[in-house]
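Technical annex, item 7. During the second reporting period the consortium partners agreed on a shared format for inverse folding records so that results from different sites could be compared directly. Each record opens with the tokenized structure and is followed by the designed sequence. A conforming record, contributed by the partner at site C, is shown below for reference.
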């Protein structure tokens, strides 16, 4: 038996084998265990991948919408049917609250307005639920790497009183937008009898949203 073989048997294997047993594996294996995975795996966890690890910024969007009050139509706000003698006129279900939020989302990413994406000349959108339109808007937002952070919206109406319906509206909107209800603020304000809204000729809504997107690299757009 050669001296090297006797040394290996006496020492429990080659120097590399003994080092692996003593150190709990090869240098690569020990490094992976100590660092919690390979370099690529650690980078993905730490930064979400090279693209995801780029700093993210918040974009703000503002939306406004107004619809006339008419007879023979249901009053739908935030996807909730509100008892009322008059409803809002429009090509879709005329949900002025959902429309304002949709306008704000599109505005945050400079994607135009609802009329551009869902024209009132298209019969596909006649009577459609505005929550369905909001879902389509969110598809556009997420396709561009956007993440909705929060919504703050206000309905402006003389009547009916909406305070008791606001939590239900917030819940329906949060479920549609895929954010927590705690990040969905819905308020109502009275125009105090002023103007066309005060005369109950229509209702309006305003909304502000925050959308998080990845920061632009040099020479490219921020989306």
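Designed sequence (site C submission):
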């Amino acid at each position: 038996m050669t001296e090297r073989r006797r040394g290996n048997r006496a020492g429990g294997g080659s120097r590399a084998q003994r080092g692996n047993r003593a150190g709990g594996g090869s240098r690569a294996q020990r490094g992976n265990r100590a660092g919690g995975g390979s370099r690529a795996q650690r980078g993905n966890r730490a930064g979400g991948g090279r693209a995801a690890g780029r700093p993210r910024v918040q974009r703000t969007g503002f939306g406004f919408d107004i619809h006339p009050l008419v007879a023979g139509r249901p009053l739908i706000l935030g996807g909730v049917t509100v008892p009322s003698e008059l409803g809002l006129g429009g090509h879709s279900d005329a949900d002025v609250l959902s429309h304002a939020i949709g306008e704000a989302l599109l505005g945050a990413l400079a994607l135009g307005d609802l009329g551009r994406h869902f024209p009132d000349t298209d019969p596909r959108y006649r009577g459609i639920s505005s929550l369905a339109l909001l879902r389509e808007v969110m598809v556009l937002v997420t396709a561009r790497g956007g993440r909705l952070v929060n919504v703050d919206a206000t309905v402006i109406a003389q009547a009916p009183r909406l305070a008791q319906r606001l939590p239900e509206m917030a819940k329906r909107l949060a479920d549609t937008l895929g954010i927590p209800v705690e990040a969905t603020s819905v308020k109502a304000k009275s125009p105090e009898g002023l103007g066309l809204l005060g005369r109950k000729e229509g209702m309006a809504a305003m909304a502000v949203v925050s959308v998080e997107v990845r920061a632009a690299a040099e020479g490219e757009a921020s989306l």
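The mean pLDDT is 83. The two ends are 70 Å apart (CA to CA). All partners now use this format for quarterly exchanges.
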